[in-house]
Design goal:
Layout (H helix, E strand, L loop, with lengths): L1 E8 L18 E9 L4 E3 L7 E7 L1 E7 L5 E8 L3 E2 L10 E4 L3 E7 H10 L1 H27 L2 H15 L5 E3 L4 H8 L3 H13 L3 E4 L5 E4 L2 H6 L5
Helix pairs in contact: 1-2, 3-5, 4-5
Length: 227
């Protein structure tokens, strides 16, 4: 793991963005950037939540290990996403780099101090917390009420919505990750993807099949009853 540090203003990307000019000078906050190799833990479940993280490059998965040894992935964090912000004092999930990943860190206490003096920051933090809650609710519905094909369709729609690339949907996660996110087996995910391929809704690029071309988004959406 490599680290580099820099001192920047309070405009921590993704939280402090505001189009309105401020009347006072921005608060200076010390940020660090850390690079993690594929599969490296960023923080563990029940560890102190002293920092807030943002993905610069790469991708991160947040997961819990169940009592029977199974893994449940709660979220995928892509470039630009902020994660690790907790209501309590400890992390509820383990965060791990899916691929070689660089993240930006800031102290949670520094963020709280800025929010106390900046209404925009406080509002953006509330919006982010609300968005995380909405995602958790949607994920609970997905796991509890949808068929395997509906779950895979919903996942592809979510990744397509979050993707910044046009044309090809490049997934950093493997099918095992997708299965553990959707509460399915690896074989079930593979069958669902093959079914969508047979229906000419998607196509695969390359041998790894992590690059997907969505040929019919409207038809794909028809499988996602919540969409």
């Amino acid at each position: 793991m490599l680290a580099r540090s820099s001192t920047v203003s309070a405009d921590f990307p993704g939280i402090f963005t505001d189009s309105k000019p401020r009347s006072s000078a921005p608060i200076r906050i010390f940020l660090n950037e850390f690079s993690y190799k594929k599969g490296t833990e960023i923080f563990g479940e029940k560890e102190p939540a002293d920092y807030v993280y943002q993905v610069v490059t790469g991708a991160v998965r947040s997961y819990k290990l169940l009592s029977d040894g199974r893994r449940q992935i709660g979220a995928f964090h892509l470039a630009g996403d902020i994660f690790g912000l907790e209501i309590g004092s400890d992390h509820r999930f383990t965060a791990e780099a899916i691929v070689d990943t660089t993240v930006r860190l800031m102290k949670r206490r520094s963020l709280e101090l800025v929010a106390e003096s900046d209404v925009t920051v406080a509002r953006n933090l509330l919006n982010m917390t609300t968005s995380n809650l909405r995602h958790a609710e949607d994920h609970m519905l997905l796991l509890g009420r949808k068929t395997s094909l509906e779950r895979v369709a919903a996942f592809l729609i979510e990744m397509d919505r979050r993707s910044t690339a046009a044309g090809v949907l490049a997934l950093p996660m493997c099918r095992r990750d997708i299965a553990d996110y959707l509460g399915l087996t690896l074989e079930t995910v593979s069958r669902a993807l093959s079914r969508l391929h047979d229906l000419d809704i998607l196509g695969f690029v390359g041998n790894t099949q992590r690059q997907i071309v969505l040929r019919d988004r409207e038809k794909l959406a028809s499988f996602d009853l919540q969409n």
